[in-house]
Input
Amino acid sequence: MYILLLALVALGLFAALLALISHHRGEKDEVVIPPPSSCATCDGVNAKCEQECVMEAATQPIEYFDDEELDTFKGRPSDQYTDEEADQFAEVMYTMKPEEVKDWNRSLILRGINVPDQIKDELITLING
Output
C-alpha cells in the first residue's frame, strides 16, 4: 500500500517538474488566428462574406465602367428589355476584364439597374469563372 502511495506521489512530482520545465522554457500554446477575410477573397460560398461586401460597397462611391448610358434603364424590370437593349449590356460586359464583371454587376445593383434576362446566364458564367 505504501509503495503505491509513494509511486503516486513520485508521479505527481514528476508531472509538476515537467510542467515547470516546459513553462520555464517559454513553450506556450500557439493560438491560430485565421486571416481576416476581405472582399477580394469572397468566393460566393460564404453568404456572410458576400453580404458584408455588398454592405461595404454600398457605403463606397459607385464605380462606373464606362457604362453611364445604362443609367437610363434604372428601375426597369429584367424581363422588360428588348434584344437591342440587352445587346448594350452585353457589349459593356464583353469589353471588360473577366475579373471586373462581378464588380460591374455590383455597380449595377447599387445604381438600381436590373440586368436583362437575355444575358443573365452569361453574366453568372463570367462571375463564377
In short: The two ends are 73 Å apart (CA to CA). The CA atoms of residues 93 and 101 lie 7 Å apart. The helical segments are 2-25, 47-59, 83-94, 101-110, 117-128.
